[in-house]
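Open question from group meeting: does this chain pack into something compact, or does most of it stay loose? Before anyone orders reagents, we agreed to write out a predicted structure and look at it together. Recording both the input and the output here so the notebook holds the full record.
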Amino acid sequence: MDDTTRAIDLHLDLDGADELAELERALLKARATELTDVRRRNVRFTAGYGDATTRDVLEDEGRRAQVRHDVLTKLIDELRRATR
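Structure tokens returned:
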């Protein structure tokens, strides 16, 4: 692990399979929302929307949405591994 990598150990007590299933659904919904945001911003960016400042903001917001999507994917994958 380098200086920019963080390992997080998380303990979460859930009351049964229903809470586990709803947690996974909530994470999947959040990830889908981020993916929608990434795609929308990429379309606006590639379509040449706005001036240079607006395009810089779109690029930054799109990058951050992609990072959120990616970390939600990691979280979902780890949740699934932990519950097998």
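Observations to bring back to the group:
The helical segments are 16-46, 52-82.
The chain has one domain: 16-82.
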